[in-house]
Amino acid sequence: MSETLPRAGVGARPFAALALALTFALPLVAAPGALRAAEPGADYPTRTIRMVVPFAPGGTTDIFARLLADRVGRALGQQIVVDNKPGAGGNTGTDLVARADPDGYVLVMGTVGTHAINSALYAKMPYDPVKDFAPVAFAAAVPNVLEVNPKTVKATNVKDFIAEAKAAPQPLTVASSGNGTSIHLSAELFKQMTGVPLVHVPYKGSGPAVNDLVGGQVNAMFDNLPSSIGQIRAGALRPLAVTSAERSPALPDVPTVAETVPGFEASSWFALFAPAGTPPAVIARLNAEVAKALEDPAVKQRYAEVGGQMRPMTPAQLGSFVQAEKAKWAKVVEASGAKID
């Protein structure tokens, strides 16, 4: 006698449930690597990556962004397109990335301004530099350089500059590229740590400020080294010190401010950030490729030419660095009284 199948109803349900369970379980048994392949970021990247530079083309941020975009893009096998989105001290472009999908295909070349200074400087911020971003990799540090007009300032070193400024019948003037910039706040930090009564003269950009410094309309400036190195090498400006913790390879004979004022450090810096929530595998891949790019002899040469300094960091180290920088510059901004609505 032939065996009869259970009728549809209560008796058939356990049998159907078992068949359904096996239907879903068998592919997992047959392909144990399927789950690993589906992990977020495991196949990254599969298309073009966009690197936002929140400043105009040709500036220091743009220089480092394009250099790394080229090298890292080649290593990843995908093009990294640099997209300049200037405005509001870098806030405009940075905010675009904060709101982007956290998939690793939109990054920002952040700076000391966008991720450390602006949150204290601006009354209203469109993004949180810590909560809205995942740290990826440190790109470069660039010292500012304390430079003077050799026709209006006699000092040839920081000690003599402090003495000359304190003894001057009228306060010496110090130019900047604008209120709240790292150039301005380097001068404010110097004033706070030395008691020198410098008068701040803000300009709309580093170019006009340097022009007036060369022309003698102002006495001194703490400019980004790449912006002034040509005038320094031409003898139009006298460098007294760099603001980084170590001497710059671009000006090896110029001391640091810290050699005279212990604890002084005010470098401009640049780092890659992704939107918060970007998969850890993507962050790790990008960090590793940036580290490799920084070992490229051609990259090292270009860094040396513009005074760039390398400080390889893990994403966690970069996150801690940003927190420390935010705390430091918040105090300087508060003491300076600088504020932008």
Task: Walk me through this protein's architecture.
The protein has 341 residues and is α/β, with parallel strands linked by helices. It contains twelve helices and ten strands. It has helices spanning 13-30, 34-37, 60-76, 91-98, 112-121, 158-167, 182-194, 206-215, 225-233, 280-293, 297-306, 315-336, and strands at residues 49-53, 80-84, 106-111, 133-142, 144-148, 173-176, 199-202, 220-224, 238-242, 268-275. The chain has a five-stranded mixed β-sheet with strand order 2-1-3-10-4, sandwiched between helices. Strands 7-6-8-5-9 form a five-stranded mixed β-sheet. The N and C termini lie far apart (91 Å). Residues 1-37 have low confidence and may be disordered.
Terminal Cα separation, in Å?
Answer: 91 Å
How helix-rich are the residues, as a percent range? 40-55%
Structural class: alpha/beta
In the CATH hierarchy, the architecture of the largest domain is: 3-Layer(aba) Sandwich
Number of helices: 12
Going by CATH, the homologous superfamily of the largest domain would be: Bordetella uptake gene, domain 1
Number of strands: 10
Provide the CATH top-level class of the largest domain. Alpha Beta
| N to C succession of SSEs | HHEHEHEHEEHEHEHEHEEHHH
